[in-house]
Write a structure and sequence with these properties.
One of its GO terms (molecular function) is 3-deoxy-8-phosphooctulonate synthase activity. One of its GO terms (cellular component) is cytoplasm. It comes from Mariniflexile fucanivorans. It is a single chain. By secondary structure, this protein is of the alpha/beta class. 33% of the residues lie in helices and 18% in strands. The chain has 8 helices and 13 strands. The protein has helices at 29-46, 72-86, 97-104, 120-127, 146-155, 181-186, 216-225, 255-270, and strands at residues 18-22, 50-53, 90-93, 109-112, 132-136, 161-165, 168-169, 175-176, 191-194, 200-201, 210-211, 230-236, 250-251. The strands form 3 sheets. It has an 8-stranded parallel β-barrel with strand order 1-2-3-4-5-6-9-12, surrounded by 6 helices. Strands 7-8 form a two-stranded antiparallel sheet. Strands 10-11 form a two-stranded antiparallel ribbon. Helix 1 (29-46) runs parallel beside helix 8 (255-270). The longest helix is centred in the N-terminal third of the chain and has 18 residues, at 29-46.
Length: 272
């Protein structure tokens, strides 16, 4: 899998990590364009290969009254507009077999959520679109088990797969990142570290997931030192009022400093 396989991606010769970054969910056109413009300005400055991330719907919710989306095609059209406006590739997650063909008409990378990565029919349907497939490691899975998810993509005639580590369940209400898994998973496919979801605190009694955004830079730095190929970071200009995952998102105002520090670390790592 080469980054050059992704339409519109920039800075592929910079020897930097690549970045999947954006809001958890598409809440509207203005917010998506605002976030995308800011992130693109930063990543162009730092020469980071960038893919805009946004969920067109949220199927895995704690409560029936939780936000699930603004409408599938409306959100997908916003992702398409982001791509066309800023000449940037996009990624979104899918949850049902029928989502694969639908979303593939609008985005460049299809993401399989962590809870669904063992769903063979879903993985195969995504792979058969020919898009790049981002496989989120299940919170309940070992790094070694992810080779089977990757193989499902390959066996479907698609050689474009990534793995994303988003932490492992630690008790009922916390996540940990076991960095021993990074070199293991990189044997199977390029490996991304999902920094913000790794800091979730799920299963809160309120039905609203908590998080530790104060630890974002700590986890991200460790990922870069341990040679992850890419980073996944959810960001918003108003996390406190975001409709999904606000508790663990990075404030957009803090993104440039974080990425500047990470690029500096990457340059040191590249000399070792």
């Amino acid at each position: 899998m080469n980054l050059q396989d992704i339409p519109k991606i920039k800075h592929t010769n910079s020897n930097n990590f690549f970045l999947l970054c954006g809001p958890c969910a598409i809440e509207g056109e203005d917010m998506a364009l605002r976030i995308a413009e800011k992130v693109i300005t930063i990543t162009n400055k730092l020469e980071i290969p960038y893919i805009f991330k946004g969920s067109f719907k949220k199927a895995n919710r704690s409560r029936v009254d939780s936000f699930t989306g603004i409408g599938d095609e409306k959100a997908l059209n916003i992702l398409k507009k982001v791509s066309e406006t800023f000449d940037v590739p996009t990624v979104t997650d899918i949850h049902e077999i029928s989502d694969a063909q639908l979303a593939a008409q609008y985005v460049d990378v299809l993401q399989i959520p962590a809870f669904l990565v063992r769903q063979t029919d879903l993985v195969v349907a995504a792979a058969e679109t020919g898009k790049v497939i981002n496989l989120k490691k299940g919170q309940f899975m070992s790094p070694e088990a992810m080779k089977h998810a990757v193989q499902k993509v390959y066996d479907s005639g698609n050689n474009k797969a990534w793995i994303t580590d988003r932490g492992t369940m630690f008790g009922y209400q916390d996540m940990i990142v076991d960095f021993r898994g990074i070199p293991t998973m990189r044997q199977y496919a390029p490996t991304v570290l999902d920094v913000t979801h790794s800091l979730q605190q799920p299963n809160q009694s309120t039905g609203v997931t908590g998080g530790r955004p104060d630890m974002i830079e700590t986890i991200a730095r460790a990922g870069i030192v341990n040679n992850v190929d890419g980073l996944f970071i959810e960001t918003h200009f108003d996390p406190a009022n975001a409709k999904s995952d606000g508790a663990n998102m990075l404030h957009l105002d803090n993104l440039e400093k974080l990425l500047t520090n990470l690029v500096a670390i990457r340059k040191v790592v590249n000399t070792l």
